[in-house]
Design goal:
The radius of gyration is 13 Å and the shape is elongated. By secondary structure, it is mainly α. The chain is built from two helices and no strands.
Length: 70
């Protein structure tokens, strides 16, 4: 992961990349692949937060406007 990016920039780029791939999977009627990609995105995003020295949280992901209920 590039060290010059802030965690916010990195997570936004990761989100954008996965959103495009998920949209393609849905357009191809590959819901199974879309779900796999969504799961993979979540794992990668949480891993990236840990790599930046943060406590991994779903609340930090792009597009989150409200805390995730426990």
């Amino acid at each position: 992961m590039p060290t010059a990016l802030s965690i916010e920039q990195h997570l936004q780029e990761l989100h954008d990349e996965y959103a495009a791939r998920i949209n393609e999977a849905v357009a191809d009627d590959r819901d199974d692949l879309a779900w796999q990609l969504a799961d993979s995105y979540t794992r990668e995003a949480l891993r990236a937060q840990a790599a930046y020295g943060l406590t991994p949280s779903l609340d930090r992901l792009p597009g989150r406007s409200a805390p995730v209920a426990a």
